[in-house]
Design brief:
This protein is mostly helical and about 425 residues long. Helices cover about 35% and strands about 0% of the residues. It has a two-stranded antiparallel ribbon with strand order 1-2. It has a two-stranded antiparallel sheet with strand order 3-4. A hairpin with a 2-residue loop joins β1 and β2.
Length: about 425
Protein backbone atom coordinates (compact mmCIF):
# COMPACT_ATOMS: atom_id res chain seq x y z
CA UNK A 1 0.00 0.00 0.00
CA UNK A 2 1.45 3.38 -0.96
CA UNK A 3 1.39 5.14 2.35
CA UNK A 4 -0.93 8.06 3.00
CA UNK A 5 1.47 9.35 5.62
CA UNK A 6 4.73 10.29 4.04
CA UNK A 7 7.30 8.78 6.31
CA UNK A 8 5.89 5.41 7.27
CA UNK A 9 8.35 3.54 5.12
CA UNK A 10 11.48 4.41 7.07
CA UNK A 11 13.64 1.48 8.07
CA UNK A 12 16.43 3.40 9.79
CA UNK A 13 16.41 3.96 13.53
CA UNK A 14 15.06 6.73 15.74
CA UNK A 15 16.60 10.19 15.72
CA UNK A 16 17.55 12.52 18.50
CA UNK A 17 16.32 16.13 18.74
CA UNK A 18 19.07 17.33 16.39
CA UNK A 19 18.01 14.76 13.84
CA UNK A 20 21.08 12.51 13.95
CA UNK A 21 20.55 8.79 13.53
CA UNK A 22 21.01 7.10 16.89
CA UNK A 23 19.87 3.51 16.61
CA UNK A 24 18.15 0.76 14.65
CA UNK A 25 14.95 0.27 16.59
CA UNK A 26 11.96 -0.79 14.49
CA UNK A 27 9.29 1.06 16.45
CA UNK A 28 8.22 4.59 15.52
CA UNK A 29 8.79 7.33 18.05
CA UNK A 30 6.53 9.42 20.19
CA UNK A 31 7.61 12.65 21.84
CA UNK A 32 10.82 12.32 23.82
CA UNK A 33 12.14 9.40 21.74
CA UNK A 34 10.03 6.90 23.70
CA UNK A 35 8.65 3.78 22.05
CA UNK A 36 5.09 4.06 20.81
CA UNK A 37 2.46 2.34 22.93
CA UNK A 38 0.27 -0.36 21.43
CA UNK A 39 -2.76 1.93 21.60
CA UNK A 40 -1.05 4.35 19.20
CA UNK A 41 -0.11 1.67 16.67
CA UNK A 42 -2.54 0.75 13.85
CA UNK A 43 -5.59 -1.31 14.83
CA UNK A 44 -4.98 -5.04 14.86
CA UNK A 45 -1.65 -4.92 16.67
CA UNK A 46 -1.19 -7.19 19.65
CA UNK A 47 1.31 -7.81 22.42
CA UNK A 48 4.70 -8.60 20.94
CA UNK A 49 3.83 -6.74 17.74
CA UNK A 50 6.71 -6.93 15.25
CA UNK A 51 5.28 -4.57 12.68
CA UNK A 52 3.55 -5.12 9.35
CA UNK A 53 4.41 -8.00 7.05
CA UNK A 54 7.88 -7.58 5.56
CA UNK A 55 6.68 -9.60 2.55
CA UNK A 56 3.69 -7.36 1.82
CA UNK A 57 5.57 -4.16 2.71
CA UNK A 58 9.22 -4.70 1.67
CA UNK A 59 12.03 -2.92 3.47
CA UNK A 60 12.30 0.74 2.49
CA UNK A 61 14.65 3.61 3.13
CA UNK A 62 13.74 7.14 4.19
CA UNK A 63 16.60 9.61 4.35
CA UNK A 64 14.51 12.45 5.79
CA UNK A 65 13.81 14.09 9.11
CA UNK A 66 10.18 14.83 10.00
CA UNK A 67 7.80 15.42 12.92
CA UNK A 68 4.17 14.49 12.32
CA UNK A 69 3.23 15.77 15.76
CA UNK A 70 4.49 19.26 14.96
CA UNK A 71 2.71 19.41 11.60
CA UNK A 72 -0.61 17.88 12.71
CA UNK A 73 -1.02 19.15 16.26
CA UNK A 74 1.26 22.17 16.19
CA UNK A 75 0.33 23.58 12.78
CA UNK A 76 -3.14 22.02 12.44
CA UNK A 77 -2.48 20.40 9.06
CA UNK A 78 -4.60 17.50 7.90
CA UNK A 79 -3.12 14.34 6.39
CA UNK A 80 -4.44 15.16 2.93
CA UNK A 81 -2.97 18.69 3.04
CA UNK A 82 0.44 17.15 2.37
CA UNK A 83 -0.69 13.84 0.88
CA UNK A 84 -3.17 15.36 -1.54
CA UNK A 85 -2.74 12.61 -4.14
CA UNK A 86 -4.20 10.03 -1.73
CA UNK A 87 -7.67 11.45 -2.37
CA UNK A 88 -7.68 10.14 -5.94
CA UNK A 89 -5.30 7.18 -5.62
CA UNK A 90 -6.83 3.85 -6.64
CA UNK A 91 -3.70 1.69 -6.88
CA UNK A 92 -1.22 0.71 -4.21
CA UNK A 93 1.66 1.42 -6.60
CA UNK A 94 0.82 5.12 -6.65
CA UNK A 95 3.43 7.29 -4.95
CA UNK A 96 1.71 9.32 -2.26
CA UNK A 97 4.84 10.89 -0.81
CA UNK A 98 4.48 14.70 -1.04
CA UNK A 99 6.37 16.28 -3.90
CA UNK A 100 9.22 18.59 -2.85
CA UNK A 101 7.25 21.58 -4.13
CA UNK A 102 4.52 20.73 -1.63
CA UNK A 103 6.90 21.76 1.16
CA UNK A 104 7.97 25.05 -0.44
CA UNK A 105 4.91 27.02 0.67
CA UNK A 106 5.78 26.70 4.36
CA UNK A 107 9.55 26.23 4.29
CA UNK A 108 10.36 29.00 1.85
CA UNK A 109 12.46 26.69 -0.30
CA UNK A 110 12.28 26.35 -4.09
CA UNK A 111 12.19 22.85 -5.61
CA UNK A 112 10.98 23.83 -9.06
CA UNK A 113 14.37 22.82 -10.50
CA UNK A 114 15.76 19.87 -8.52
CA UNK A 115 19.23 20.45 -9.98
CA UNK A 116 19.30 23.99 -8.54
CA UNK A 117 17.21 23.96 -5.35
CA UNK A 118 16.94 27.42 -3.85
CA UNK A 119 16.19 28.71 -0.38
CA UNK A 120 16.69 31.55 2.02
CA UNK A 121 19.21 31.99 4.80
CA UNK A 122 16.92 30.77 7.61
CA UNK A 123 17.59 27.33 9.04
CA UNK A 124 14.13 26.14 7.95
CA UNK A 125 15.04 26.91 4.33
CA UNK A 126 18.22 24.84 4.30
CA UNK A 127 18.58 21.34 2.79
CA UNK A 128 20.08 19.97 6.00
CA UNK A 129 16.93 20.89 7.91
CA UNK A 130 15.00 17.96 6.37
CA UNK A 131 17.61 15.81 4.60
CA UNK A 132 19.70 13.49 6.74
CA UNK A 133 23.46 13.35 6.23
CA UNK A 134 23.40 16.29 3.81
CA UNK A 135 26.78 17.92 3.07
CA UNK A 136 27.18 20.94 0.79
CA UNK A 137 30.59 19.69 -0.33
CA UNK A 138 28.82 16.76 -2.06
CA UNK A 139 27.61 19.15 -4.73
CA UNK A 140 24.28 19.94 -3.13
CA UNK A 141 23.13 16.35 -3.72
CA UNK A 142 20.86 14.74 -1.13
CA UNK A 143 20.58 11.08 -0.23
CA UNK A 144 17.68 9.49 -2.06
CA UNK A 145 14.85 7.74 -0.26
CA UNK A 146 13.67 4.36 -1.50
CA UNK A 147 10.00 3.42 -1.34
CA UNK A 148 9.44 -0.14 -2.57
CA UNK A 149 6.05 -0.89 -4.02
CA UNK A 150 3.86 -3.00 -1.75
CA UNK A 151 2.74 -6.47 -2.80
CA UNK A 152 -0.90 -5.65 -2.25
CA UNK A 153 -4.02 -4.19 -3.84
CA UNK A 154 -5.33 -1.06 -2.21
CA UNK A 155 -7.63 1.81 -3.15
CA UNK A 156 -7.17 4.89 -0.96
CA UNK A 157 -9.86 6.87 -2.75
CA UNK A 158 -12.64 4.40 -2.08
CA UNK A 159 -11.76 4.28 1.63
CA UNK A 160 -11.75 8.07 1.92
CA UNK A 161 -15.06 8.26 0.04
CA UNK A 162 -16.54 6.10 2.80
CA UNK A 163 -15.25 8.46 5.51
CA UNK A 164 -12.65 6.00 6.78
CA UNK A 165 -10.13 8.21 8.57
CA UNK A 166 -6.39 7.81 8.18
CA UNK A 167 -5.98 6.84 11.84
CA UNK A 168 -8.37 3.92 11.37
CA UNK A 169 -5.66 2.20 9.30
CA UNK A 170 -2.46 3.97 10.38
CA UNK A 171 -2.90 4.64 14.10
CA UNK A 172 -2.30 7.82 16.10
CA UNK A 173 0.28 9.42 13.79
CA UNK A 174 -0.53 12.85 15.19
CA UNK A 175 1.33 11.82 18.35
CA UNK A 176 4.45 10.63 16.49
CA UNK A 177 7.72 12.37 15.87
CA UNK A 178 9.12 9.97 13.28
CA UNK A 179 6.47 7.71 11.78
CA UNK A 180 8.00 4.58 10.27
CA UNK A 181 6.62 1.66 8.27
CA UNK A 182 5.40 0.27 11.60
CA UNK A 183 2.40 2.56 11.13
CA UNK A 184 1.29 0.60 8.09
CA UNK A 185 -1.90 -1.47 8.56
CA UNK A 186 -2.07 -4.91 10.19
CA UNK A 187 -4.30 -7.51 8.55
CA UNK A 188 -6.14 -8.10 11.82
CA UNK A 189 -7.14 -4.43 11.70
CA UNK A 190 -8.43 -4.79 8.12
CA UNK A 191 -10.66 -7.64 9.28
CA UNK A 192 -12.45 -5.15 11.52
CA UNK A 193 -14.37 -4.09 8.40
CA UNK A 194 -13.72 -6.83 5.87
CA UNK A 195 -15.05 -9.66 8.03
CA UNK A 196 -18.08 -7.97 9.47
CA UNK A 197 -21.47 -9.61 8.81
CA UNK A 198 -22.52 -9.14 5.18
CA UNK A 199 -25.23 -6.51 5.77
CA UNK A 200 -22.81 -4.37 7.80
CA UNK A 201 -19.63 -4.53 5.74
CA UNK A 202 -21.15 -3.20 2.53
CA UNK A 203 -18.65 -3.53 -0.29
CA UNK A 204 -15.76 -4.44 2.01
CA UNK A 205 -15.49 -7.97 0.66
CA UNK A 206 -13.76 -10.60 2.78
CA UNK A 207 -12.22 -12.68 -0.04
CA UNK A 208 -8.42 -12.97 0.09
CA UNK A 209 -8.10 -11.69 -3.48
CA UNK A 210 -9.77 -8.42 -2.48
CA UNK A 211 -6.39 -7.22 -1.22
CA UNK A 212 -3.83 -9.91 -2.02
CA UNK A 213 -2.25 -10.38 -5.45
CA UNK A 214 -3.23 -13.50 -7.37
CA UNK A 215 -2.24 -15.40 -10.48
CA UNK A 216 -4.05 -18.22 -12.28
CA UNK A 217 -6.78 -18.29 -9.64
CA UNK A 218 -4.47 -18.67 -6.61
CA UNK A 219 -2.89 -16.16 -4.26
CA UNK A 220 0.63 -15.22 -5.20
CA UNK A 221 2.87 -16.35 -2.33
CA UNK A 222 6.42 -15.93 -3.67
CA UNK A 223 7.94 -12.45 -3.83
CA UNK A 224 11.43 -11.00 -3.93
CA UNK A 225 10.84 -9.92 -0.33
CA UNK A 226 10.07 -13.50 0.79
CA UNK A 227 7.30 -16.09 0.97
CA UNK A 228 3.81 -15.04 2.01
CA UNK A 229 2.58 -17.41 4.76
CA UNK A 230 -0.47 -17.17 7.03
CA UNK A 231 0.00 -16.04 10.65
CA UNK A 232 -0.87 -18.29 13.58
CA UNK A 233 -3.92 -16.26 14.58
CA UNK A 234 -5.49 -16.82 11.15
CA UNK A 235 -7.36 -20.12 11.69
CA UNK A 236 -4.30 -21.67 13.36
CA UNK A 237 -2.75 -21.91 9.87
CA UNK A 238 0.82 -20.81 10.59
CA UNK A 239 3.12 -23.02 8.49
CA UNK A 240 5.58 -23.66 11.29
CA UNK A 241 7.51 -26.82 12.26
CA UNK A 242 4.33 -28.48 13.54
CA UNK A 243 2.27 -27.69 10.43
CA UNK A 244 2.33 -31.26 9.08
CA UNK A 245 0.62 -32.43 12.27
CA UNK A 246 -1.89 -29.57 12.37
CA UNK A 247 -2.79 -29.15 8.71
CA UNK A 248 -5.36 -31.96 8.69
CA UNK A 249 -7.51 -30.14 11.26
CA UNK A 250 -7.29 -26.83 9.36
CA UNK A 251 -7.98 -28.44 5.97
CA UNK A 252 -10.74 -30.60 7.39
CA UNK A 253 -12.49 -27.62 8.95
CA UNK A 254 -12.43 -25.55 5.74
CA UNK A 255 -10.71 -26.93 2.66
CA UNK A 256 -11.72 -23.85 0.65
CA UNK A 257 -9.52 -21.74 2.92
CA UNK A 258 -6.48 -23.82 1.88
CA UNK A 259 -7.60 -23.66 -1.76
CA UNK A 260 -6.85 -19.93 -1.80
CA UNK A 261 -3.15 -20.80 -2.14
CA UNK A 262 -2.97 -24.52 -2.94
CA UNK A 263 -4.21 -26.67 -5.79
CA UNK A 264 -5.71 -30.09 -5.12
CA UNK A 265 -2.73 -31.68 -6.87
CA UNK A 266 -0.49 -30.51 -4.02
CA UNK A 267 -2.60 -32.58 -1.63
CA UNK A 268 -2.69 -35.67 -3.82
CA UNK A 269 1.08 -35.60 -4.33
CA UNK A 270 1.34 -36.84 -0.75
CA UNK A 271 -2.02 -38.42 -0.15
CA UNK A 272 -2.22 -40.66 -3.22
CA UNK A 273 1.16 -42.23 -2.51
CA UNK A 274 3.25 -40.68 -5.28
CA UNK A 275 5.16 -38.79 -2.63
CA UNK A 276 4.60 -40.68 0.59
CA UNK A 277 5.87 -39.10 3.80
CA UNK A 278 7.04 -41.89 6.09
CA UNK A 279 4.79 -40.64 8.87
CA UNK A 280 1.61 -41.63 6.98
CA UNK A 281 2.19 -45.39 7.42
CA UNK A 282 4.71 -47.00 9.78
CA UNK A 283 7.57 -49.01 8.35
CA UNK A 284 5.91 -52.35 9.25
CA UNK A 285 2.67 -51.32 7.54
CA UNK A 286 2.59 -54.30 5.15
CA UNK A 287 2.23 -56.61 8.16
CA UNK A 288 -0.32 -54.43 9.96
CA UNK A 289 -2.49 -53.07 7.15
CA UNK A 290 -4.95 -56.02 6.84
CA UNK A 291 -6.43 -55.27 10.27
CA UNK A 292 -6.80 -51.55 9.61
CA UNK A 293 -8.15 -52.14 6.10
CA UNK A 294 -10.97 -54.24 7.54
CA UNK A 295 -11.79 -51.83 10.36
CA UNK A 296 -11.30 -48.40 8.78
CA UNK A 297 -13.13 -47.48 5.55
CA UNK A 298 -11.04 -44.31 5.27
CA UNK A 299 -8.40 -46.34 3.41
CA UNK A 300 -10.64 -45.92 0.37
CA UNK A 301 -10.13 -42.16 0.42
CA UNK A 302 -6.68 -42.78 -1.09
CA UNK A 303 -6.74 -46.39 -2.33
CA UNK A 304 -9.06 -48.26 -4.69
CA UNK A 305 -9.80 -51.96 -4.17
CA UNK A 306 -9.97 -52.83 -7.85
CA UNK A 307 -6.72 -51.09 -8.77
CA UNK A 308 -4.36 -50.45 -5.89
CA UNK A 309 -5.18 -53.39 -3.59
CA UNK A 310 -5.88 -55.98 -6.28
CA UNK A 311 -2.76 -55.14 -8.28
CA UNK A 312 -0.52 -55.63 -5.26
CA UNK A 313 -2.29 -58.81 -4.15
CA UNK A 314 -2.07 -60.34 -7.60
CA UNK A 315 1.59 -59.47 -7.88
CA UNK A 316 2.38 -61.09 -4.55
CA UNK A 317 0.09 -64.07 -5.08
CA UNK A 318 -2.39 -63.05 -2.37
CA UNK A 319 -5.43 -63.51 -4.61
CA UNK A 320 -7.12 -66.25 -6.55
CA UNK A 321 -5.99 -64.70 -9.83
CA UNK A 322 -2.38 -64.34 -8.70
CA UNK A 323 0.58 -66.56 -9.61
CA UNK A 324 -0.45 -70.10 -8.78
CA UNK A 325 3.16 -71.07 -8.05
CA UNK A 326 3.16 -68.71 -5.09
CA UNK A 327 0.14 -70.37 -3.50
CA UNK A 328 2.03 -72.96 -1.45
CA UNK A 329 4.52 -70.48 -0.05
CA UNK A 330 2.07 -67.69 0.75
CA UNK A 331 -0.43 -69.85 2.60
CA UNK A 332 -4.14 -69.08 2.86
CA UNK A 333 -5.41 -65.52 2.67
CA UNK A 334 -8.76 -66.51 4.17
CA UNK A 335 -9.30 -68.61 7.31
CA UNK A 336 -9.15 -72.43 6.97
CA UNK A 337 -11.70 -74.09 4.73
CA UNK A 338 -13.54 -75.65 7.66
CA UNK A 339 -14.13 -72.15 9.08
CA UNK A 340 -14.46 -70.11 5.89
CA UNK A 341 -16.09 -72.01 3.04
CA UNK A 342 -17.57 -75.35 4.19
CA UNK A 343 -21.36 -75.41 3.96
CA UNK A 344 -21.68 -75.90 7.69
CA UNK A 345 -19.50 -72.85 8.42
CA UNK A 346 -20.47 -70.44 5.64
CA UNK A 347 -23.28 -68.76 7.60
CA UNK A 348 -21.31 -68.56 10.81
CA UNK A 349 -19.96 -65.14 11.89
CA UNK A 350 -16.50 -66.02 10.55
CA UNK A 351 -17.80 -67.64 7.36
CA UNK A 352 -17.50 -66.20 3.87
CA UNK A 353 -21.27 -65.86 3.38
CA UNK A 354 -21.55 -63.43 6.28
CA UNK A 355 -18.56 -61.46 4.97
CA UNK A 356 -20.10 -61.25 1.49
CA UNK A 357 -23.46 -60.10 2.89
CA UNK A 358 -21.75 -57.52 5.07
CA UNK A 359 -19.64 -55.93 2.28
CA UNK A 360 -19.66 -57.53 -1.14
CA UNK A 361 -17.40 -54.74 -2.42
CA UNK A 362 -14.53 -56.18 -0.42
CA UNK A 363 -15.02 -59.58 -2.07
CA UNK A 364 -15.21 -58.27 -5.63
CA UNK A 365 -12.02 -56.31 -5.16
CA UNK A 366 -10.27 -59.67 -5.70
CA UNK A 367 -12.93 -62.09 -6.95
CA UNK A 368 -15.02 -62.14 -10.10
CA UNK A 369 -18.46 -63.72 -10.57
CA UNK A 370 -16.69 -66.73 -12.02
CA UNK A 371 -15.14 -67.49 -8.62
CA UNK A 372 -18.55 -67.49 -6.91
CA UNK A 373 -20.20 -69.54 -9.65
CA UNK A 374 -17.72 -72.38 -9.14
CA UNK A 375 -19.79 -73.40 -6.13
CA UNK A 376 -23.07 -71.55 -6.48
CA UNK A 377 -23.93 -72.24 -10.16
CA UNK A 378 -26.86 -74.60 -10.76
CA UNK A 379 -26.31 -78.02 -12.31
CA UNK A 380 -27.92 -76.86 -15.53
CA UNK A 381 -25.68 -73.85 -16.03
CA UNK A 382 -22.53 -75.73 -15.10
CA UNK A 383 -23.49 -78.67 -17.30
CA UNK A 384 -23.84 -76.47 -20.38
CA UNK A 385 -20.20 -75.54 -19.98
CA UNK A 386 -20.94 -71.81 -20.20
CA UNK A 387 -18.61 -71.25 -17.29
CA UNK A 388 -16.06 -73.78 -18.41
CA UNK A 389 -16.27 -75.41 -15.00
CA UNK A 390 -18.28 -78.53 -15.62
CA UNK A 391 -21.40 -79.16 -13.56
CA UNK A 392 -21.85 -76.78 -10.67
CA UNK A 393 -22.73 -78.23 -7.26
CA UNK A 394 -25.70 -75.84 -7.08
CA UNK A 395 -25.17 -74.54 -3.54
CA UNK A 396 -27.95 -72.06 -2.86
CA UNK A 397 -26.45 -68.57 -2.25
CA UNK A 398 -29.75 -67.01 -1.24
CA UNK A 399 -30.59 -66.33 2.39
CA UNK A 400 -33.67 -67.71 4.10
CA UNK A 401 -36.92 -66.10 2.91
CA UNK A 402 -35.37 -64.87 -0.34
CA UNK A 403 -38.13 -66.35 -2.52
CA UNK A 404 -40.64 -63.93 -0.99
CA UNK A 405 -38.66 -60.93 -2.34
CA UNK A 406 -36.88 -62.42 -5.35
CA UNK A 407 -39.33 -60.77 -7.76
CA UNK A 408 -38.20 -57.28 -6.79
CA UNK A 409 -34.53 -58.26 -7.17
CA UNK A 410 -35.19 -59.77 -10.61
CA UNK A 411 -37.04 -56.71 -11.86
CA UNK A 412 -34.39 -54.35 -10.53
CA UNK A 413 -31.49 -56.14 -12.25
CA UNK A 414 -31.80 -59.54 -13.92
CA UNK A 415 -28.14 -59.85 -14.79
CA UNK A 416 -26.92 -61.29 -11.45
CA UNK A 417 -29.71 -63.89 -11.63
CA UNK A 418 -28.67 -65.03 -15.13
CA UNK A 419 -25.12 -65.74 -13.99
CA UNK A 420 -26.43 -68.96 -12.40
CA UNK A 421 -29.96 -69.42 -13.82
CA UNK A 422 -31.00 -70.15 -17.37
CA UNK A 423 -33.68 -67.78 -18.75
CA UNK A 424 -36.14 -70.70 -18.77
CA UNK A 425 -35.23 -71.90 -15.30
CA UNK A 426 -38.53 -72.65 -13.46
CA UNK A 427 -37.13 -70.94 -10.39
CA UNK A 428 -36.98 -67.66 -12.33
CA UNK A 429 -40.54 -68.28 -13.46
CA UNK A 430 -41.66 -68.27 -9.83
CA UNK A 431 -39.92 -64.92 -9.27
CA UNK A 432 -41.49 -63.43 -12.38
Amino acid sequence: MACVLAFFAATFGPTDRAGAQTGSARAPLSAGNSAVSLQDLPPGNQAGDVGPSSVIFPAQKLALRFSHKRHVKGLGLSCTYCHDRAVKSRQSSDSLIPTPTRCDGCHGSDHQNLTRVGGGSDRINQCAYCHLRYRPEDGNRVEQSDFSKPNLRFNHAIHLERNIGCAQCHGAVERMELATRDQLPRMRGCFGCHQMPVPSRGRARGACTTCHLSERGLLRTQFDSGALLPPRWLRNAEHGPDWIERHKQVAGADSQFCANCHRESECTDCHDGRVRPRRIHPSDWLSLHPITARQDPSCQSCHRHQSFCLTCHERSGVSMSGPYAAFASRGRFHPPKAVWSDISAAQQPSGHAREAQRNINTCVSCHSERDCAMCHATLAIGGRGNLGLGAGPGINPHPAGFRARCGAALRQNARPCLVCHEPKDPNLGVCR
